[in-house]
Design goal:
Strand content of chain A: under 5%
Structural class of chain A: mainly alpha
Distance between the termini of chain B: 50 Å
Radius of gyration of chain B: 20 Å
Distance between the termini of chain A: 62 Å
Number of helices of chain B: 12
Strand content of chain B: under 5%
Order of helices and strands of chain B: HHHHHHHHHHHH
Radius of gyration of chain A: 26 Å
Number of strands of chain B: 0
Structural class of chain B: mainly alpha
Largest sheet of chain A: none
Shape of chain A: flat
Largest sheet of chain B: none
Oligomer: heterodimer
Helix content of chain A: 55-70%
Chain lengths: ~130, ~325
Amino acid sequence: MEAGAYIPYKYIPILIALVFATTFGTVGLLINKFVAPKRFNPVKFISYESGNPPSGDTKNRFFIGFFLLAILFVVFDIEVLFLYPWAVAFNKLSSEGFWIMITFITLILVGYIYEILIGALTWHKK
Amino acid sequence: MIEFLLMIIKTMIVFTIVLAHVAYTTYAERKIIGRAQARMGPMEVGPHGLLQPIADFIKIFFKEDIVPIKAEKFIFQIAPVIILVFTIVNLTVIPFSRDFILADINVGILFILASASLSAYGIILAGWSSNSKFSFLGGLRSASQVLSYEISLGLSLAAVVLMAGSLNLKDIVIAQHNTSFGMYALPQIIGFIVFLISAFAETNRAPFDLPEAETELVAGYLTEYSAFRYALFFLAEYVAMYIMAFLGALCFLGGWTLPRFVTEMLPFLESVPGIICFAMKVYGFIFLFIWVRATFPRYRFDQLLNIGWKILIPAGLINLLIVAFIKRFV
């Protein structure tokens, strides 16, 4: 097959769906824009803080735990993605391929249990 | 060309049916929760309030669309569309019956997981761009919740993929039908429970609806949204609920097929069309979503993360090991 000659026909409905969903959203928003009333009042446009005038800056510092959690997610998500090709090819694997992955999963599990025990995954340590 | 037109028509049919379902799921939710609390639920619009979703839909267009001055205008305006698009596009890879599927791609499950991650962008962008404290905290919480539970969701689905040997949702259903149980929910009961809990958290539904915990965060990342933009978030949430119900019915309950031992006992069930079997399973899931919302109190945020990281992920890994050993040696 020539380079560039391949058209992934099976994926075309996904493209159609993307276009449809985008049009649905934008057309709805446009209708809303033309139909809805516009009664200007400056109070409407300040951000909501339970009825008080907003105080201070919003782009504040936030708890570092959220960031650590995102990093942990990257590590574990990659691990899960390693499992998928192995799972798909499972029937064609030799016993070596099987045991290597079992060792990998067991190692992760042991390390993971250690992490839980030292409290690395506890949110808001007291 | 004809094929292309046919595809467009099919996509439109699926979208219309699902969106109609979504509209009436809101009605069902209000009715069921009403009954659970010894109320009647909506009764005014039409007989038994049956026209309520249509009235709501029309009303939402006539509400003023407010963009706060301090918001990052462009991102604020585009975030709901991002969420809706990446949720709704999942419908294309769902096989509704043996021969009805829009895009029969061989990486169905992977596609759904990928677009689930992408719709998390919409949430965090909405929270960040609103420039309101409630929205910001709601967005952060929601993002970390979706990320945490995506791992356990992926692990429980990895066990299904391992058992079926394919990422194609159609092949998974057929592989299930050929086992003696007829559905993976029975032999992989741990995986099924992990999947269920993760599905509740992934879709931000009660008891894990912390991003929208109204007692502490008003409406989370939705706080500054109004009119049709709010409706887009709402639609996306319900479509996501349906996607999870589809996924659960396909990967754990045998999709459009009935287990062999059931059809042997009750042979007349053979003649039930596949789409009806599938719909019944999906409605069961949706009812479960609503029932749980009516029953359980909300979790605290640290409890939520602890369940995800300390129980569900190890349980998912152990389930995967068990399934691997069963498949290899039994």
